[in-house]
Amino acid sequence: MNFEGLKNRVDRAEALVEGRLIQTGDRYSALKSNWRQAWTPPRIVIAGLVAGMVAGATQPQRALRRLGKLGGPKSLQMISAVSGLMTSIQATIAAATAEKAAKTADDAAETADDAAESASAASSQAQVQTGNAAAVSPQPVAMTAPSAQGDVAMPASDRRRPEPAYAEQPRPAEAATEMSESGR
């Protein structure tokens, strides 16, 4: 063989090695992706159970000693600390939710007051413009129930009565109930 023939053989071998490296990398990334997708939670649990059985069958004394260490006082302290932490986190979340609900209820009450004031101003302005003194009644109109024929209910008579003063903010459920039952 001459030098050119040897050079061509080396070039072909190098190209073959480079191609195999690319193939190996592609196949490794595909294997890695498939491996991660194959580990579903039930398979992980099954693999853990099998590994535990194998460890218990091959070295039962060692497995029992490790299991006994898990039930010691330090692990009970850790469990109680984690339990207290979770309880405090839940209490913090509940307090934040209650505060947000109280603010929402306050905003709704202010909006309702503003709407009542604007409606009152509009009705008094309409009465003044019409000049009809007989339309103004000195007594408030009582709430009447709608009849079966589909009549519209009249406004409640206690709308101008001031709201009772509360010593503290009501809980969110009470605030929502009071808001929904205020028209009754």
Written account of the structure:
The protein is mainly α. Helices cover about 70% and strands about 0% of the residues. The protein has helices at about 5-40, 40-60, 60-70, 75-130, 170-180. The longest helix is centred in the middle third of the chain and has 58 residues, at about 75-130. The chain is elongated and about 120 Å long. The model is unreliable at about 135-140 and about 140-150 (pLDDT under 50).
The class by helix and strand makeup works out as mainly alpha
Major beta-sheet overview: none
| Succession of helices and strands | HHHHH
Q: Using DSSP, what is the number of strands?
A: 0
Helix content: over 70%
Count the DSSP helices: 5
Average of per-residue pLDDT values: 77
**What value does the Rg take, in angstroms?**
40 Å
The outline comes out as elongated
Distance between the termini: 108 Å
Uncertain ranges:
133-138, 140-148
The percent range for strand residues is under 5%
